[in-house]
Amino acid sequence: MGRINRYGPAAFLASLLLGLAAAANPGSPDAVIEGAVTELSEKLSGRKDELAQDSDTLYRMINDILLPRFDRKLAAQLVLAKHWRTASDEQRERFINAFYNSLLRKYADGILEFDENQIEVIEFRGDTSAKRSLVKTNVTLDDGTKVPVHYDLVNRGDRWLIFNVKVEGVSYVSNYRTELDSEIRATSLAAVIERLESEASVAADE
């Protein structure tokens, strides 16, 4: 996963959690993100030690924030690419759920490092009525280094949903597409889905 992992899971998962939906109309993507940063900070305030010791509660909290705000189907479709076209309806649905749960559990602990003061949302200057938009932010690391983290959002009519994250220009969708394509070619889509489901099940039991 290269540079995405280099800067830690906090920036990655925090970026996924920033797709807070606005009621009635999607509004400005950057305003949506700024509001979500505040909400996430409030939910974590005073609970980081507790959540660090209780993975189930941490997963539920993140899921409650993320699930309504992340376009799971579009993300999964882009990751599978050509394999999506040949997958059955059942495989597609299983992959959507398995991939989402994999992301959730893989990066959950990193959210405990989230600090809203380290995130600078750059003013959005695009077309708020467009189908898709790119929101740019900078994440300041502990050593003072500023890392560009950009979010791809899709306009679903009444809300913006995140479907991709780019850390220093490196896309998580592209990373996973390459990684899973190699695995699918070596085994099969069914095997990949079973692996993801198994990993999620094991993590839930720990």
Count up the helices. 10
Beta-strand percentage range: 15-25%
Main beta-sheet strand count, sense and barrel state? 5 strands, antiparallel
| Domain tally | 1
How many strand elements? Answer: 5
What is the CATH third-level topology name? Nuclear Transport Factor 2, Chain: A
Query: Judging from the principal axes of the Cα atoms, what is the shape?
Result: globular
Please tell me the CATH architecture by its name. Answer: Roll
Q: What is the straight-line distance between the termini? A: 24 Å
Description of the molecule:
A hairpin with a 4-residue loop joins strand 3 (146-155) and strand 4 (160-167). Residues 19-25 have low confidence and may be disordered. Helix 2 crosses helix 8, helix 6 (72-80) packs across helix 8 (89-107) and helix 9 (172-186) crosses helix 10. This protein has a single domain (3-205), classed as Nuclear Transport Factor 2, Chain: A (Roll), CATH 3.10.450.710. It contains 10 helices and 5 strands. The chain is α+β, with helices and mostly antiparallel strands. The protein has a 5-stranded antiparallel sheet. The chain has helices spanning 3-6, 9-16, 29-44, 48-52, 55-66, 72-80, 82-86, 89-107, 172-186, 189-205, and strands spanning 119-121, 132-140, 146-155, 160-167, 170-171. The two termini are 24 Å apart.
